[in-house]
Amino acid sequence: MKKILLVSLVGLLLVALAVPTVALKFKDVPDTHWAADYVYNLVNRGIITGFPDGTYRGNMSVTRYQAAVMLDKLAKSIGTGGVSEDKLRDLIKSELAKSAAGKAEGWSIGGYYQVRGLLNKVIGDGNRTIAGQYRVVMDIAKDLGPDTGFEIGLDTKTNAGNLAFGNYDIVANGLLDLAAHTTIDDFGFPITINLSQGNGDQYHNEDMIQMTTEMYGMTVGGAYEYNNGLIANASEQYSMIGAFSTELPWLGESSISGSIDLYQPVGVANPLASGGKKQANVKGVAMPADGVKVGGKLGINGSNSNALYVAAMLTLDDIWNTGTMLYLEGYKLGGQWQTALGEDYVGTQVFDEVLITGAGGYIGALLDQKVTDNLDFAGRLALNFTGTGLGTLQTTWIEPKLSLQSSDLVSVYGAYRLMLNNVTNGKTDRLELGAIVTY
Questions:
Q1: Domains in the chain, start-ordered, CATH in brackets?
Q2: Which candidate in 101, 163, 234, 371 could, as Cys together with 375 as Cys, close a disulfide (CB 3.0–4.6 Å)?
Q3: What is the pTM of this model?
Q4: In this structure, are residues 388 and 357 in contact, taking their beta carbons and an 8 Å threshold?
Q5: What is the C-alpha separation between 245 and 120, in angstroms, rounded?
């Protein structure tokens, strides 16, 4: 469905009608956004309410169920105010037809194509090389009934074909993700079961069965995971996970989540026995003011400093009303977290790369500036350290990027990435030009 056209079409119906002003504002729809008037007219009419985290998610696909709810609310809101239900139906009939064209009942398909050209070592050490790459990302979902369905994810970008940056840019070791979910409500409380196989958003292949439920205002659950195709530490293949998450309404829009994990190395019968590994992780997020988000993470998998990691994050989202988003993060990592399993919990740096720094630290920054409605500037910086304390600066990553939304479905971009080795004084860089087509 061309969501922009549909929202604009319905918004034009409402813009001429006097509607009361409400205080609800979405974090991701500033007043300067081109669709803000249309979106908030629908909010004022009670047609849309957004998501519990205060976002509108305007780039997310709309299901036919969601469209049915919005259209029903719209028809009731307009009532007999000069627009009949038949006329309204005719007005949006073509858009709904386009949404349903080529799709079987209950299916949703989305994704994007990406092509890019790379000029490596523009000023870096070594010989220049030129290469072209493509990427296809597709997400297919099938709704099988109430709270039941399955998803298939395809991503052709793997660890093959990396240029100039060694093992960086690794996204996955395989092409497909498979997942299924259902909810059972036969015990007086709902139990959601998730099955998954593939890479997910991690850096190795994994098979997982997970169960969650709502209890005492929290989401609690457990999982059993089999890891294979690990980049590092391939002997640790099994894990059992207990996890929880909950919102903290007395602290505003805040939440806390955590997990306790037991890793079972190959040849060890019991992860609680000698040779097994235990670790705990906790993450908290708070929003003390509009557009301000602070967060922290802590991980423990042993009794010494090498078994710890701590992290802090800060997001300032358009607090100056200039279309500027600034994100800062810092990590202090113990050496025992420098494995592929640790990456599941520590995460990645602002370049979406694996945090491989040894026992040291990392500082990252991301700046996104809306220049015009269609032109966007982004800049990224990553500083990687090794050694005790904050450590010695090892590498510096810098990347400016310009993106142009040339149409609703097509964007083009140009980026330059420079990596400096502060130990050897070496440098590696690349110039990238590309285009992304969404569908």
A1: 3-100 (no CATH), 107-139+208-438 (2.40.160)
A2: 371
A3: 0.69
A4: no
A5: 44
